[in-house]
Amino acid sequence: MSGDTGHAAGTIVSVAEGELGIDHGPIDGIGMDAMTMLFGTMGDVDATAFEEGDEVSFMVKRGRDGSYRIMAICDTGEAGTDCLDGMMQHDH
Do 7 and 28 form a contact (C-beta atoms < 8 A)? Predict the structure, then answer.
């Protein structure tokens, strides 16, 4: 069963303002298989803080238009593989 939010790990493959291309593994929570795709960002997520090749953990949320946008993202190379846990404490 899939929901409206999910999380995964991946590698940044492209960066643009308001958009990140990520080669990601399966996204737990929404039932999405591993693939490479572009995600828009939402809230105060700054896509330009990342570079191609960065290893990241990220959380996505499905919008009213059906597309998934990044609601939280962190660099696992700098902050560790569990870096999302501190950002999303209200989900525990």
Answer: yes
If DSSP states are collapsed to H, E and C, what string results for 13-80? EEEECCEEEEEECCEECCCECCEEEEEEECCCCCHHHCCCCCEEEEEEEECCCCCEEEEEEEEHHHHC
Closest CA to 5 of 69, 89, 86, 84: 69
- Pairwise CA distance, residues 56 & 40, whole Å: 15
Q: What confidence tens digit (pLDDT) does each residue in 28-37 have?
A: 899 999 999 9
CATH code of the domain made up of 5-91: 2.40.50.320
